[in-house]
Amino acid sequence: MCGIIACVGADSTVPTLLNGLQNLEYRGYDSAGVAVENGSGLSVYKRAGSVSDVRDELSQMTDDGDVGIGHTRWSTHGPPTDVNAHPHTDEDDEVAVVHNGVIDNYQSLRAELEDRGVEFTSDTDTEVVPHLFSEHLEHCPDAETAFRRTVEALDGSYAIAAVVDGEEAVYAARNGTPLVVGVDDDSYYLASDVPAFLEYTQDVVFLEDEDVAVVRPGDVATLSVNGEPIDREVEHVDWDPQETGKGAYEHFMLKEIHTQPTALTQTLEGRLDVDEETVDLEGFPPGTFEGYDDVQFVACGTSYHAALYGSKLLDDVGIDSTAYRANEYDTSSSPASEDSLVVAVTQSGETADTLTAMRHAADAGATTAAVTNVVGSTAARNADHTLFIRAGPEIGVAATKTFTSQVVSLTLLSRRLAEDFPDAEPREDFDELAAALRQLPEDVETVLDGSEAARLADRYVNDEAFFFIGRNLGFPVAMEGALKFKEITYQHAEGFTSGRLKHGPLAMVTPSTPLFALVTGRHNEKTLTNAKEAKSRGAPIVLVTADPEEHDDLADEALRIPETHPALEGLLANVQLQLLSYHAADMLGRSIDKPRNLAKSVTVE
Ligand code: M6R
Questions:
Q1: What is the pLDDT of residues 539-561, one digit of tens each?
Q2: Which of 103, 197, 493, 524 is in Cβ range 3.0-4.6 Å of 466 for a Cys bridge?
Q3: Are residues 83 and 198 in the same domain?
Q4: Residue 320 CB: number of other CB atoms within 10 A?
Q5: Region 89-98: what's the mean pLDDT?
Q6: So what's the pLDDT on residue 334?
Q7: Residue to mutate (ligand 1; options 193, 302, 480, 597; most atoms within 8 A of CB)
Q8: Do 581 and 529 belong to one domain?
Q9: In the predicted model, is pLDDT for residue 59 greater than 90?
């Protein structure tokens, strides 16, 4: 949701900024721009369009310098036009600013500035920042003080980076929106996310809310908005820079689907002792979760589907648990209490809705845990406990490998919780589940090698709508299958509990609405009946199952999965559905890694 990059002291500033923006394109791709301070004024260039579209133009038009900022936009205030693109400047082009987030009080700030005669050129909330900064520069002793005064006036969420004519420095601030500093020998980077500069350095400083940073050649200072110095540690991020490239794959999504066996191996590494039938979750020793009454999951999108899967696994072992959509959680009258464990499931660790739900739970006295992929993310830092899913960086906007690694992480966590919760009944078949988990990377490989998803995509891609049904653990997978399908194909797709079909949606079933039924897990009888009801109305039936032969009479087509423990069948079925969506979107010529209107990390509510 908007990507910010800045650099100080890099070998060549404009190419470094453009590389960073290209790496951040998954955060937004409505427009792009850069501003460079080069000792003879600020050079600012920006255009509507994705970074890939405007990269060549920007690199030719922009003079180089030692200090610069860049931005790739996901529009919130104002359409994606050249004027609304960032950086935004003051009237004299003395200051240029890039921003991610929403400035809640921008209307009153804008009215005040307009009363003082300032003319605005864009529809954005961001434009108040350069005008305010410029006003403060006139009265303050130095640019740092003027910047801090500017930040003091802002309400809302922001990650901001600014350059000032004649100053070899980048001024930055964060509140509720991520910003991280990359530290190399002679150069510094500042970005919304680590992959932006991973090819230059893996040493980072994660800025905290209300931090201000001033980055100059050879020095980064972190301070409070009042100017008091704050110490922030340099941390090493162990993501492989190679992982942020597409390699030989046509799309990041395809690469991320195909690297799930590796991601799963990383997720499981050192955490599962099959012989001893134990899990060892670093940071969660036995007894960590004694004394809680219930577990509440909060999450959005794909992560919500993983949370729902996790919640059903907890039901299985007798733990009272509910999965909430994080964006609705704070509308309920505080469902959490001091006896609740609230688990936020979030790939990025930066989803605003999920972070708000975590705060809501913490305010109610609950203990919070984050299940996330991103070390140093806000969720990881705000939670009382954190479990990293270790899937490696995911660049495609459509979440794939992180869903799989989230579910496996939650499966492991369910074991720890079952051991700790007083009334839980740990699974008797954990030995079988543990063996199946160890086998899972290989089983995913088998699905990837033998999938018929591309052929099925070709057969059905031009149909009218696509329905996905499942029961129990199959339900979150049906929802996830439909979300992935609509997200990247732009075709109508819906996921239902199998039984829900006949309470309304069946009216939409026709010979042009294929039905994908998840015959996975332990509760399939009724799913088969519901699929038959759809077949009687002419819908083509595709079963996702380990045993297609058993259902020859019902299935028009099948997507086969290897036999495994019932708790994991849904995961293998999901890989088939990921491939189905991918191939259908590819045949339709969609922008698979950057679907229209979406962004990878949704940092506004
Ligand atoms: O980073 P998060 O896991 O918190 O993101 C939550 C959703 O925005 C995300 O899963 C979204 O639904 C994906 N694009 C779906 O593929």
A1: 999 999 999 999 989 999 999 99
A2: 493
A3: yes
A4: 16
A5: 96
A6: 63
A7: 302
A8: yes
A9: no
Ligand 1 midpoint to CA 158 (Å): 20
Compute φ and ψ for 74, nearest 5 degrees: -120, 110
Instruction: For residues 414 and 347, state if they share a domain.
Output: yes
Domain-located, residue 19:
yes
CATH of the domain at 308: 3.40.50.10490
Range scoring the smallest mean pLDDT among 19-33, 306-320, 426-440:
19-33
* The two structure tokens encoding residue 507: 């009216």
Answer whether residue 350 shows pLDDT above 80.
yes
For a mutational test of ligand 1's pocket, the pick from 1, 297, 347, 406, i.e. the residue with the most ligand atoms closer than 8 A to its C-beta, is: 347
Strand (E) positions, 373-528? 385-388, 465-470, 492-497, 515-519
Is ligand 1 within 6 A of the CB of residue 259?
no
Q: Is there a single domain that holds both residue 314 and residue 205?
A: no
Is ligand 1 within 6 A of the CB of residue 603? no
Q: Which residue range forms the structural domain that includes residue 185?
A: 3-237
3-state secondary structure of 353: helix
Q: What is the pLDDT of residues 470-511, one digit of tens each?
A: 999 999 999 999 999 999 999 999 999 999 999 999 999 999
What is the whole-number distance in angstroms between the Cα of residue 133 and the centre of ligand 1?
A: 34
User: Burial code of 228-266, b = ≥16 C-beta within 10 A, e = fewer?
Assistant: eeeebeeeebebeeebbeeeeeebbbbbbbbbbbbbbeb
* Any domain includes 603: no
347 alpha carbon – ligand 1 mean position (Å): 7
Identify the band that residue 54 occupies on the pLDDT scale cut at 50, 70 and 90.
confident
Instruction: Give the single-character DSSP code of 98.
Output: E
In this structure, which residue's CA is closest to atom 16 in ligand 1? 398
Q: How far apart are CA 495 and CA 517, in angstroms?
A: 10
Amino acid at 316: D
pLDDT tens digits along 199-209: 999 999 999 99
**Which residues are known catalytic residues?**
2, 600
Q: Which amino acid is it at 459?
A: R
Question: Domain for residue 595, yes or no?
Answer: no
Q: Are 187 and 166 in contact (CB under 8 A)?
A: no
Pick from 261, 563, 262, 257: nearest CA to 436: 563
Query: What is the tens place of the pLDDT at every residue in 392-412?
Result: 999 999 999 999 999 999 999
